[in-house]
Design brief:
Serine Threonine Protein Phosphatase 5, Tetratricopeptide repeat; 122 residues; mainly alpha; two-stranded antiparallel ribbon; elongated
């Protein structure tokens, strides 16, 4: 159960098909989104990456650049390069001025493009 600005939301209800965020005001939606991101950061810091990604995959966070960036960081730290690249590029679509996401994209592309000629058989 999360409580955000006098609105209590059951986490099982959030994951169900019966949850419609349109029933809240814009203020409550923004507060709810910030609360989801905050909870995902806590879960990431505790090492529960899968649960953090589940929270960040909520439909209400699809257009949030901060959520996409956080998901990208989690994927990057788990060396899930494809998902990290997708998350960071999604973040840059939402907020083109996000230079940290571009830096991560460049790093991932360098990792994926790296090869050492001495490691190949002649």
């Amino acid at each position: 159960m999360w409580k955000c600005e006098n609105v209590e939301i059951d986490t099982a209800f959030v994951r169900s098909d019966h949850f419609h965020i349109s029933t809240f005001s814009n203020f409550h939606i923004k507060m709810f989104m910030k609360e989801l991101i905050f909870k995902a950061r806590q879960l990431r810091d505790e090492g529960d990456f899968q649960e953090a990604l589940t929270l960040l995959d909520q439909p209400s966070l699809k257009g949030d650049g901060e959520a996409a960036f956080l998901a990208g960081e989690i994927h990057y730290n788990n060396q899930n390069w494809g998902a990290a690249l997708n998350s960071f590029r999604h973040c840059m679509q939402i907020d083109p001025s996000q230079t940290a996401a571009q830096t991560y994209v460049d790093l991932i592309l360098n990792i994926l493009g790296f090869f050492h000629t001495d490691q190949f058989n002649p």
